[in-house]
């Protein structure tokens, strides 16, 4: 295994090993500070981060506002308070070593005011901001106001080029690095474009080389690229290290830090990780962001898959070919019109107990039980505006407060699903993001007999190539 040479990133010489930021409340000040203390770059998430009372007790994020706008203000207040507290914990934990980054999602609700709210208070407690999930044009301008490095997360050279031309060229001196997040291998939300096949992964080397070539054209030959998604054993990436063609490369680990002693996830989740098999992480498009995402298969995801399979096109009025088959719905038996071949399917689902035909933005009906449909409608009504545009509830961070589209029952409240996983809820009814190589926990001898390392032990193990 080649020795890892230090890179200068965010103002210091550090190991080219980066902790991937994971919200909600999974990458926190303790995990980030511990990773930095081991010599790398630790990253805490500012997407619904935890905060604590005067006694250090976790403060649940309870929303009291009667309107969405009121709850949106509460969400931003929680995020700013939590971000400041996690930055302080990370700073204290790192003991002067490494660097601390804060991760935000551009398409999360209130990202701009949250960034200002945290950065205006934390000073030099953090050294960089990473940002993805969308096209974060303004993150460079915001980072520049506080003299901090920024690290955009992209999944193609084309995306970076668009960001550079529109904004980043004006703040080039603070571009600390570019995170290439592989859209087929990474956990959480993935940046697959509409022209890329989710079932046909592409070789990351060629895509990262293309990114480097574009960056060289902009005078960024020595700006590090951080490879994220699918990185487990560094020995498998030995030809990337000190590779003149690729230029300076660092490696981001998002999934492996889930299974450390400092990781805040519950023991049941850690046990689940230790027993995953290949294929147990599912790439899907149920997220209310509209992006693909990767998560551990469980009853929650299986329910979403089954709901979407109970789906047919419909029309509200008669007369449009081929929608000629009448289906009465609801307590008043108001008819909708289906294709004749779809009528027996719908009748069969209704007979099986999926009696509620729920309308989607795509002129389709999905069929659910009465109990489940009521829960879906309640969750939509309770939206706390955690996304800039939410497919599930139709909230949008705009003057109208809406996407202008019908709320989509095929999706789910991501805030509730992630909070449930993070804070001791039923793992079969929550969302557990993970990279596609999470099955390696069961195969890697480092984790034999249920061994769970400290962050320092993990960083030291990674440096050996394993």
Descriptive notes:
There is one protein chain. The model has no long low-confidence stretch (mean pLDDT 95). This protein has helices at residues 29-37, 68-94, 111-122, 139-145, 157-166, 204-217, 267-274, 299-309, 343-351, 370-381, 414-422, 440-443, 455-463; strands at residues 7-9, 12-14, 17-19, 41-45, 99-105, 128-132, 149-154, 178-181, 188-190, 225-228, 249-253, 281-284, 292-296, 311-313, 325-329, 334-338, 356-359, 364-368. It starts with 6 loop residues before the first strand and ends with a helix. The protein has an 8-stranded parallel β-sheet. A 3-stranded antiparallel β-sheet has the order 9-13-12, with no helix packed on it. With 466 residues, the chain is α/β, with parallel strands linked by helices. Helices cover 30% and strands 17% of the residues. It folds into 2 domains: 7-265 and 443-463, TIM Barrel (Alpha-Beta Barrel); 299-429, no CATH class. It is built from 13 helices and 18 strands. A hairpin with a 4-residue loop joins β15 and β16.
Give helix % range.
Answer: 25-40%
| Strand order within the widest beta sheet | 3-11-10-8-7-6-5-4
CATH classification class of the largest domain: Alpha Beta
- Radius of gyration, in Å, reads 23 Å
Tell me about the largest β-sheet. 8 strands, parallel
- Which CATH architecture of the largest domain would you pick? Alpha-Beta Barrel
Beta content comes to 15-25%
Instruction: Provide the CATH superfamily of the largest domain.
Output: Aldolase class I
């Amino acid at each position: 295994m080649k020795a890892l040479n230090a890179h200068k990133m965010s103002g210091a010489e550090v190991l080219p090993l980066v902790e991937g930021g994971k919200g909600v409340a999974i990458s926190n000040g303790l995990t980030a500070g511990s990773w930095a203390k081991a010599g790398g770059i630790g990253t805490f998430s500012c997407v619904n981060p935890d905060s604590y009372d005067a006694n250090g007790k976790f403060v649940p994020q309870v929303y009291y506002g009667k309107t969405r706008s009121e709850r949106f203000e509460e969400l931003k207040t929680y995020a700013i308070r939590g971000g400041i507290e996690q930055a302080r914990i990370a700073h204290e934990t790192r003991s002067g070593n490494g660097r601390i980054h804060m991760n935000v999602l551009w398409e999360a609700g209130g990202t701009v005011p949250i960034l200002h709210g945290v950065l205006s208070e934390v000073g030099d407690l953090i050294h960089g901001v990473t940002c993805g999930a969308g096209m974060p044009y303004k993150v460079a301008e915001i980072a520049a106001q506080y003299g901090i490095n920024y690290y955009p997360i992209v999944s193609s050279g084309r995306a970076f080029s668009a960001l550079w031309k529109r904004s980043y060229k004006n703040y080039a001196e603070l571009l600390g690095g570019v995170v290439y997040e592989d859209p087929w291998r990474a956990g959480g939300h993935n940046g697959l474009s509409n022209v890329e096949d989710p079932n046909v992964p592409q070789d990351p080397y060629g895509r990262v080389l293309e990114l480097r070539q574009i960056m060289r054209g902009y005078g960024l030959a020595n700006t590090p690229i951080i490879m994220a998604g699918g990185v487990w054993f560094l020995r498998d990436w030995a030809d990337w290290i000190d590779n003149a063609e690729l230029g300076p490369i660092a490696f981001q680990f998002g999934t492996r830090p889930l299974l450390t002693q400092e990781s805040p996830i519950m023991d049941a989740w850690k046990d689940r990780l230790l027993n995953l098999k290949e294929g147990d992480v599912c790439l899907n498009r149920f997220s209310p962001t509209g992006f693909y995402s990767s998560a551990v298969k469980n009853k929650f995801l299986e329910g979403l898959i089954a709901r979407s399979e109970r789906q047919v096109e419909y029309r509200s009025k008669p007369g449009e070919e081929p929608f000629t088959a009448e289906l009465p719905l609801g307590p008043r038996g108001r008819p909708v019109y289906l294709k004749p071949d779809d009528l027996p399917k719908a009748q069969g689902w209704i007979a099986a107990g999926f009696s509620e035909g729920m309308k989607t933005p795509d002129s389709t009906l999905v069929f659910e039980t009465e109990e489940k449909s009521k829960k879906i409608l309640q969750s939509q009504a309770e939206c706390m505006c955690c996304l800039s545009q939410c497919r599930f509830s139709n909230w949008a961070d705009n003057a109208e407060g809406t996407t202008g589209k019908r709320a989509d029952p095929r999706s789910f409240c991501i805030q509730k699903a992630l909070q449930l996983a993070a804070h001791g809820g039923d793992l079969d009814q929550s969302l557990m993001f993970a990279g596609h190589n999470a099955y390696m926990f069961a195969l890697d001898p480092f984790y034999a007999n249920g061994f769970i390392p400290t962050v320092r032990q993990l960083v030291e193990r990674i440096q050996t190539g394993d």
